[in-house]
Amino acid sequence: MFVRKTRSYKDNYPNSIAAFEKVQLGGLEQTILIRGENRDNPILLFLQ
């Protein structure tokens, strides 16, 4: 697994989002990390 410290968005962007979720994709359990500065902006998830 990845171990790395990243900057805290909460300090600089109070409307930020940070989510680490397990989802089913193609019948397999996958883990996705979603981070953004503004939770009002949509997320584009492109799967190929």
Report what the structure shows.
By secondary structure, the protein is mostly beta strands. It has one domain. It is 8% helix and 38% strand. The protein has a two-stranded antiparallel sheet with strand order 1-2. The longest helix is centred in the first third of the chain and has 4 residues, at 9-12. The two termini are 23 Å apart. The mean pLDDT is 79.
Beta-strand residue percentage: 35-45%
The quaternary structure here is: single chain
Average pLDDT number: 79
Query: From N to C, what is the helix and strand string?
Result: HEE
Number of strands: 2
Low-confidence stretches: none
The largest sheet, given as strand count, sense and whether it forms a barrel, is: 2 strands, antiparallel
Amino- and carboxy-terminal Cα gap: 23 Å
Approximate shape: extended
Strand order of the largest sheet: 1-2
Rg (C-alpha, Å)? 13 Å
The total of helices stands at 1
Helix content: under 10%
Which helices and strands occur, and which strands form pairs?
Layout: H1 9-12, E1 17-25, E2 28-36
Antiparallel strand pairs: 1-2
